[in-house]
Design brief:
Rossmann fold, globular, 262 residues, single chain, 7-stranded parallel sheet, alpha/beta
Length: 262
């Protein structure tokens, strides 16, 4: 599999890796021989992911509790990852929050929380990693966007704004860093079977069935579906791919967006 995906083998930092899509990304990268810095606000979740990587793949994984909103702490967290793993050649920004609320209940604090985690942290993480990325052959960055990068979601103004904004950040960073040989792309998931989606939309069997029914491929996505796409974009097979996105949505965008459910 390592040969198939032409992995450069350099270490990768994955944010939000304590569960869901981030956890799947960290494991998928370790599976092809890449050491992983497993970051999550939930330190116990990060540690559990790191243990699973070491147990299942025999790969080095360093867990750390990291709040990606805490910009002043990022340089120290990167330095720790570098000391333990070597120069960092990749980043997956999978940390994210949904922040669903009606517009008449939206507060400045709620807006800032969602935008800080999903959007603001993305370029600031890249900034903290610039020295490593520029010095590492095959370096690449992947942001986890959403079909909300293209669609509006009712009662999710901050989330939709953050995921739309990631598209612009991705394109700008790709152009900014192209001369350094650093690629920047996005994966845009559809409805993925994660704790975030379950808490917001699929808490009952009936609602889950409705989401599946309105997805052309007839099922929710798996975190591993997104991880496979992120792993590809970080691999040498994607060496001519930058400034763009890979939709992994079961066909939702192709049908013009998912109908309202419930």
């Amino acid at each position: 599999m390592t040969d198939l995906l032409s992995s450069p083998g350099t270490p990768v930092i994955v944010t939000g890796a304590g569960s869901g899509i981030g956890r799947a990304c960290a494991r998928a990268l370790a599976e092809v021989g890449r050491p992983v810095a497993v970051w999550d606000l939930d330190g116990e979740g990060a540690a559990a992911t790191a243990r699973s990587i070491q147990d299942d793949f025999g790969q080095t994984a360093l867990a750390r509790a990291v709040d990606v909103r805490a910009t002043a702490e990022l340089d120290g967290a990167v330095a720790e990852a570098r000391r333990g793993l070597g120069p960092i050649g990749g980043l997956v920004h999978a940390a994210g929050v949904s922040g669903s609320c009606p517009i008449d209940e939206l507060t400045e604090e709620a807006w800032d929380f969602v935008l800080d985690v999903n959007l603001r942290a993305f370029p600031l993480l890249v900034r903290a990693l610039l020295g490593d990325l520029r010095a590492t052959a095959g370096a690449a960055v992947v942001g986890i966007g959403s079909i909300a990068s293209f669609l509006g979601y009712e009662h999710m103004v901050p989330y939709t704004a953050s995921k739309s904004g990631m598209m612009g950040v991705t394109r700008s960073l790709a152009l900014t860093l192209a001369g350094d040989g650093v690629r920047v792309n996005m994966v845009c998931p559809g409805n993925i079977d994660t704790p975030m989606l379950n808490a917001r939309a699929t808490a009952t069997p009936e609602r889950r069935a409705a989401f599946e029914r309105h997805t052309p491929l007839g099922r929710l996505g798996r975190p591993e579906d997104i991880a496979s796409a992120a792993r590809f974009l970080l691999s040498d097979q994607a060496s001519y791919v930058t400034g763009t996105y890979l939709l992994v949505d079961g066909g939702i965008i192709a049908q013009g967006g998912a109908p309202r459910v419930g």
